[in-house]
Amino acid sequence: MKFLIAIGSKEYSGPTLKLGMRVARAFGADVTIAYVGEKISSFSTSEVLMAQENLDNWEVNRRGVDVLEWAYEILKDQKYIEVENLDEGIGENSLVQTDDDRCEVFLKGTQSDEVKLILRNGEIISQLRGEVSRSEIDVTIIGGSQKRRMAHNLIQYIDSSIFVVNKYDLNQKYKILIAVDDSPNTRKAVKYGTRVSQSFNVPVEMITVSKKDEFGDGYTSAANWAKKFLRRSNISFGHQFLVGEPAQVIYEVAGDNHIIVMGSSTQNPLLKFFKGSKPLNVMETCKCPILIVK
Amino acid sequence: MPLLSNKVITEVLYWVTRKKWLILAFALSIILFYVPSPEGLTPEGHRTLIIAVTALILIVGEVISLPAVGILILVMEVLLGLDTSDGVASSFMNDAVFFIMGSLMLAVAFVKQGWDSRIALGIIRLTGNKTRNIVFGFTAISALLSSFIGEHTVAALMLPLAMTLIRNTSKDHERVRELAAVLLFSIAYGSLIGSIGTPSGGGRNAILITYLQLFDVSISYIGWMKMVYPLVLLQIPILTILILTSFKPEYKQLDTGVRKLVVEVAKLGEMTGRATLAILIFLLVFAGWVFLSESLGLGTIALMGVFLYLVTGLVRWEDINRNTHWGVIILFGSTISLGSYIKSTGAALWLANHLISITGSEMDAFPIFTDAIIVVLTASLANILSSSATVAVLSPITLNMAADPLHVGMVTAIASSFGYFTAVAAPACTIVYSSGMIRAKDFLRAGWKVGLASTALLLIYANTYWLIFK
User: What strand order describes the sheet that includes A258-263?
Assistant: First the structure.
């Protein structure tokens, strides 16, 4: 499996990186850590590249390299990568320019074959789409954002599962909350939630939410399948059938001490664009980490 | 079975949301095409302005690449019947485009020579360790150099010096935030104020010279310097003061930073024969610009310089090819072509007359009023587009706004360098912003003061000192 972790700054991306690496370890996944810098004005791209090459000659880090070095130090401390010389950093010479707006460094992972550090410039959704497509990413991990329509754009346009690390507290013990319904991606969500639970060694809570006071065959069979899967995986769990607006109910149950896992919506993208979807509503409402599985 | 898969619908949706300004631009151009031509505007002028509006929306929205906009301009000129394909092609390439191409390539050649280290030593020897003196030194050197080799070249050369000083003072960015601002803005703004000092300081200058020739006005290299260079020199100390009052550097002395910089530069050794040869070639190019530009053209001389750098092996073609923005050259050529049709179809005169009629008799009574309108219009556009594109599109209009094309043309060119307000206004600003050491709002913090001072200075200067050239 391949994970992409998008980091923005040293000040705010610590929880995203640490939780992201922990989850990636649970899956034994290859990891790409990407810093996406601001878009360079189209009038000046060559001039800025030329200036950055000149900076390299003076051994001055270009923008974003310090963030990658910070990420490197965390990977080294948490022993996610193999390092021959403990004092060495990624170094300017390790950065390889692959495109006008992309540089990368390859590292040897301890839990997987490779860990890549990537430096990109441009609009974040466009850059993440490019990286997901280029590297065939299965899960994209990103921190919470106040930007308008960010949640919508992530779910709508990124062709991988999305894990948004909202307000993650490193000192808090989290539980896993899996939202089970009759959507096609629910089973995959249950499997992902199980892996995360095994890695974190925490129990699972499952809920099935309906707006109406009745639960159809689709909902009950999905719930039964999920319970059977968790039993076979030796995970302790609880399950509830709840009535209400799904996003609101999930928000109330999750609070701020759960990691929510749910399947993505498979309805027509045009409908999703105009009307939204359950996962989007949950993402916009809840204030805790949430994994939308595609 | 659905007609289109979810994946295809998602891709289409993504394209539509990303390209909404493209759809808007085309929709608007179709609507404008069917609107009757306003009174006094020829049908060809009407169609030219449609192309201009479409191109402006696409450039500002950044929805398609700049070369694509340039190509669209050329295609629309043919499709809307402004000229034949051969006619459009010949309007695209001229000495101004040669100059833009040549100066971008020369920039690569200059940066590869390692002159930045010599410049660093020179500045430090003159200014010493005091921060305010170093800021003055950076401003002055950036201004003086950019007037000959262009603002983006100077910014690329000077950026490592500033970054090295900052890094050698403190590795904690938060502790040197204001220091970084004064040093980087002295480079960016210094490069901007100097870039109008000579015709070779920027593509916009060469574009203006091309347009002035359409009005039977010519100006020599030295003639340009006589008109403009005193303004450059006046602005250097004023700019320094404004930068130092906008930001309060954390360190008044940079002893440690300077000492380490001197040690780093000393490691590079004495100037080699290659570096000497590089300077000689540059001096030849400069001499060519001064003495031969009226007969041979600025662009031809710039290209001759590039040729010399290539055949002497001082720069490789691969480096030039990689670092020259060919797409921007296509766009500049297209905007120059568009500008020529704005003039030849009468659209420029129509727009100029409308601007004059809006403001009324004030413009006749107070010529400084005309200059003020031109400065505000040009500077506003230059902070959104590049200065060269602004001059290419606006000059045909402004040159019709007063009896003295040289006067208003120079005001337009100088005002187009007032790209102080945003990080994208000019390559020099984008380059320093790309360092990550300053924030977008820092440009407003210093920019409004510098902009106001530059505007006031230009208006007074143009209406007093330039009287001796009339």
Answer: A96-99, A102-108, A114-121, A30-37, A2-7, A139-143, A161-165, A290-293, A258-263, A175-179, A204-210, A237-243
- HSE, side-chain direction, 13 A CA sphere, residue B129: 14
ipTM of the complex: 0.86
Whether the Cβ atoms of residue A208 and residue A250 lie closer than 8 Å to each other: no
Last residue of a domain, one of A144, A165, A186: A165
Residues 152-181 on A with a CB inside 8 Å of B are 156-157, 159
How many angstroms separate the CA atoms of A260 and A289, rounded? 6
How many CB atoms are located within 10 Å of the residue A173 CB? Answer: 9
**A102/A122 same-domain check:** yes
Token duo for residue B250: 């954390």
Domain range spanning residue A78?
A: 2-165
Map residue B81 onto helix, strand or coil: coil
pLDDT in tens, A51-107: 888 888 888 888 888 899 999 999 999 889 887 755 566 665 577 878 767 889 888
Question: Structure tokens of B469?
Answer: 């050239």
pTM of this structure = 0.87
User: At which of A165, A197, A213 does a domain end?
Assistant: A165
Compute the distance between CA of residue B195 and CA of residue B146 in angstroms, rounded to an integer. 5
- Cβ pairs bridging A and B (under 8 Å): 106
Residue of chain A minimizing CA distance to B319: A50
| Interface residues of chain B, partner chain A, Cβ below 8 Å | 2, 6-7, 9-10, 13-14, 18, 62, 65-66, 104, 107-108, 111, 114, 116, 152, 155-157, 159-160, 163-164, 167, 264, 322-325, 328, 385-386, 389, 423-424, 427, 430-431, 434-436
